[in-house]
Amino acid sequence: MSTLRRRFFLTLLIAFLWTTVFARSGGAENAAANTAVTEGELAALLVRTLGLESGLPADPKPADYRTVLSGNRTYHFEAEDVYDTRGDNTSVRSYPLYGPFTGSGWLSGLAGSTKIRFTIFLPRAGEYSLHVVARGDGQQWQAGDRIFRVDSGSSLREAVAGKVDLPAGKQTITLILPPEGAVDSFTLSAAAVTPLEPLGGWDFAATLTWGRFAEVLASMRSLDSQLPVDGPGAVKNVSVADAAVLPATVETTAIDYLGAHTAAHWVRAGVGGARLEIPLQIPTAGVYGVRIRLLGEQVAVSLDSTKAIWPGKPYFSWFDLGLKRFAQGKHLLVLALPPMGGADVVELTRYKASPSEYLKLTGLPDAAGMPVPRSECVKYLKLAIDLMHGQK
Description:
By secondary structure, the chain is an alpha+beta fold. The chain has eight helices and 20 strands. Strands 1, 2, 3, 5, 8 and 10 form a six-stranded antiparallel β-sheet that branches. Helix 5 packs across helix 7.
């Protein structure tokens, strides 16, 4: 082969290799951009993008991401589970010497003052109310930069220590018990925030679809209130008298001089008030408006992670818990009625929460069941965060 021909073929080979490598490089980048995202990857991206990593442990599991994104900020701790077993001079008791207790036991103090250090982990920052179940007058609790004095008397009894701002992450709460004191548990509670998740919760292994992505972005931007009511039959009333397990301290009645009631009978508490548990059965995951018809000087309500206390009225009025995303299944609504307070019905209003409705709300492509490419996920997530900041 002549020198000229060898040079010609060598030039062709170099051109071929260059074109092939360049094409493959660009193709790899395009392939990565078009790779489908899992719901677990979106959850991790949300936590990172929104600056919530401090609420994750060093080796986070799917459950940790769910906790951070759930919006719940009420955390209960059993004292015997979180105290310093090596450094604290206390012992665990498992008999009701000072009254009923929760968990596997309670911590007993000494003849003198006893210092106990609790190490806990908070998934979300906030202004927390510290509730304690302990025994003894002159307890000294320290959380964050606040010190609280608590008096509980001679039995294990719940008391509110006070409020304190706490960051997410590892915390140390210190307690100095008075002589012969005891502690059972404590709870840190802050108002719930909007959960960041698809309807029905996360499925970390599943491929993210446009419909599920739209549900997440709508929760980020608080768009559920723009969903339409789901037509005729969307409103359902649950009679408290029929649904609740009624304690002996209440009675059912049909008197109507305290305002019109919706159910045939309503529940009235006695002079000591009453605690009512009302199970709500949700047939399909979705968005529901929740209202309760109550009377009384002050009414307290707990539903999943939502808690509310309202100044009441001496006649029946509606109290609105707002829109709730319910997973399919049973949800428990708890009412704390004041003395002579009353409860009539829980009203559930179902909203249209189909993937197509969420796609329209968020402006995503109308491809509900199709996978979301990585590049599109990042693009629309950034847009949603920019819109969130614009709303503030």
